TrEMBL record, chain A:
This is NADH-quinone oxidoreductase subunit K. Belongs to the complex I subunit 4L family. InterPro entries: NADH_UbQ_OxRdtase_chain4L/K, NUOK/Mnh_C1-like. NDH-1 is composed of 14 different subunits. Subunits NuoA, H, J, K, L, M, N constitute the membrane sector of the complex.
UniProtKB/TrEMBL annotation, chain B:
The keyword Membrane applies. Its EC number is 7.1.1.-. This is NADH-quinone oxidoreductase subunit J. It is a multi-pass membrane protein. The chain crosses the membrane at residues 6-24, 31-49, 55-78, 90-110, 138-160. Pfam families: Oxidored_q3. It comes from the Bacteria.
């Protein structure tokens, strides 16, 4: 029994990562920027699980679990930050936040 | 071509198409729902690649918890009417060119691999095996993650506090 070659798994991860990077760079809404980061992390997880199968090592799957926990923590803090920002500035448009004034 | 070898391609197509739809929607709610579809397909892909525990956790954590959190925050904040902006090539063009360049370079590199693309042999890491492995070899990472979650909880609680000044005209509370 076989699955797809490692190159095809990596190609899928690469395409997803490029899409996530595009979303994080091009969108103005802060929530959609965070969504792009989530897509990039998902692409990394796919590459890790594929590598885990290729080299028959559990380390890749273990790090995929760690990456998932990181994703959850990052989303929690990021979304709380957006709620705060929206309350304070009244908008989620990233181009409005162009000063370092507290 | 066996069934398991063929299954990868429809799954990859579903993941790629739903992610492409997610990153191009205007409405955040639509984007989040398309991303949930993408994460579910990714979970099936993980099961195909021999990682059942990661597949189950993919459904529970990113597709379930994180995306529901996104939806709740979008509902909480309500929709924001975005003002139409003058079209600028920097807005979509430059990010698209950068992302495309990376994707094309990587795909060229992958297509030029020294050995022919040979299919991966199927294997399965049982949940018990992976759990034992994580707690035996990566227990500092597990501890670090628990500290990280605590810090994230404290940070989130701190951030949603109302910092607006009591008096009008004053910048700091």
């Amino acid at each position: 029994m076989t699955t797809a070659p490692m190159e095809h798994v990596l190609a899928l991860a690469l395409i997803l990562f490029a899409m996530g990077a595009f979303c994080a760079l091009a969108r103005r809404n802060l929530i959609l920027i965070l969504l792009g980061v989530e897509v990039m992390l998902n692409a990394c997880t796919i590459a890790l699980v594929g590598a885990s199968l290729k080299w028959q090592a559990l380390g890749g799957q273990a790090f995929a679990l760690v990456l998932m926990a990181l994703t959850a923590a990052e989303a929690a803090v990021g979304l709380a930050l957006f709620v705060h920002v929206r309350k304070r500035a009244g908008t989620l448009d990233s181009s409005r936040f162009d000063t370092m004034r507290g | 071509m066996s069934l398991t070898q063929f299954l990868f391609y429809p799954l990859a197509a579903v993941i790629a198409v739903s992610t492409a739809l997610a990153v191009t929607r205007r409405e955040p709610v639509h984007a989040v729902v398309y991303l949930v579809v993408s994460f579910f397909a990714t979970a099936v892909l993980f099961a195909l690649l021999g990682a059942p525990l990661v597949a189950v956790l993919q459904i529970m954590v990113p597709a379930g918890a994180v995306m529901v959190l996104f939806l709740f925050v979008i509902m909480l904040l309500g929709s924001e009417l975005s003002k139409p902006r003058p079209a600028s090539p920097f807005r979509w063009g430059v990010p698209a060119i950068l992302a495309l360049a990376v994707a094309v370079c990587g795909l060229l590199l992958l297509s030029d691999a020294p050995e022919a693309a040979s299919p991966l042999a199927m294997a399965k890491a049982s949940a018990r095996e992976l759990g034992t492995f994580v707690y035996e070899h990566y227990w500092p990472a597990v501890e670090g993650i628990s500290v990280l979650f605590f810090v994230a909880l404290a940070g989130a609680c701190f951030l949603v506090k109302d910092f607006r000044p009591a008096k009008a005209g004053e910048d700091r509370p």
